[in-house]
Structure formats: C-alpha cells, structure tokens
C-alpha cells in the first residue's frame, strides 16, 4: 500500500464518517471513540487510519463497514487490497429485485423437510391470513376465550 493509497482510503472513510454524523474533527468530539465502540474495535485502529499511519486490518474493516453504510467488498477494493476483478459481485446469483420468496422458499431456507412442507405452509398461513374472529378484535389485544368456546 502506497502512502497515496492510504491517504485516499483514509479520506474516503473520513467522508463516510462525517456523513454518518461522527464528529471526528474536534479533539473532544468523541467521534473516533464512538465509532470504535460501536464497531467493537480498538480506538487506536481508528486513530491510526485517520492519521494516515496504517491501514486497518480485515477484521476492523469488516466491523466498521456496516456502520459507514458500505460493504466490506467496497472497503477492500478502496483500500487497494483487492481489485474488483479479484472480488466480483455475485449478481448472477441474486434473485431479481421484484422477486418475492414463497413460504416454500422460507421453509427450505429454514431446513424444513419436504415431507413437512405442507404442514409448515398451512401453519404459517394461519398467522398471515386474518381470520373472521380476529377481524373484530382490537389490534394487539387477544380475544379472551371462555370455557364455552
């Protein structure tokens, strides 16, 4: 990593921190400590990056990226550790943006066996489709049942 690369990366991260409301400019602003605490990393790692002393390690990038609203992939590419070609997007593996998963899809993701699929779908549908009795009830309040029910 060149000094220029570190400077560009640190400048990019600084901009993201400011956009997210971290006060990293004033000595007592608390922004460096706050982001370190929220990310679960050492404050020194944040300080070294902002002072252009060293590039954060992979774990620090992994923890800071979500706080800054970027992917770890973007951080790795911007840092110069990998190229976009070395870490391609898996766009062809992603479903279309208008795709809505079915209950069967959820069942598969949860590991529901095929022979139990019908039961799973039936039970979940009971929670998703309001029944006639619940429509008259106040939202958020359960209807009390008596022994005669």
TrEMBL record:
The residues covered by the HTH cro/C1-type domain are 36-75
SUPFAM superfamilies membership:
lambda repressor-like DNA-binding domains
Pfam families in alphabetical order = HTH_3
Molecular function in Gene Ontology = DNA binding
Per its UniProt entry, which superkingdom is the organism in?
Answer: Bacteria
InterPro entries with a match to the protein in the record: Cro/C1-type_HTH, Lambda_DNA-bd_dom_sf
The protein, known as: HTH cro/C1-type domain-containing protein
Which organism encodes this protein? Answer: Streptomyces venezuelae (strain ATCC 10712 / CBS 650.69 / DSM 40230 / JCM 4526 / NBRC 13096 / PD 04745)
């Amino acid at each position: 990593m060149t000094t220029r690369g570190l400077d560009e990366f640190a400048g990019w991260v600084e901009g993201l921190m400011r956009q997210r409301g971290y006060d990293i400019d004033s000595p007592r602003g608390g922004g460096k400590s706050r982001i370190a605490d929220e990310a679960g990393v050492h404050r020194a790692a944040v300080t070294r990056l902002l002072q252009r002393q060293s590039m954060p390690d992979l774990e620090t990038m992994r923890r800071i990226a979500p706080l800054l609203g970027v992917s770890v992939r973007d951080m790795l590419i911007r840092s110069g550790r990998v190229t976009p070609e070395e870490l391609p997007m898996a766009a062809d593996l992603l479903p279309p943006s208008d795709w809505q998963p079915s209950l069967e899809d959820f069942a598969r993701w949860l590991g529901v066996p095929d022979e139990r699929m019908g039961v799973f779908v039936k039970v979940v549908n009971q929670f998703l489709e309001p029944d006639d009795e619940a429509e008259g009830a106040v939202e958020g309040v359960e209807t009390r049942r008596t022994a005669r029910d």
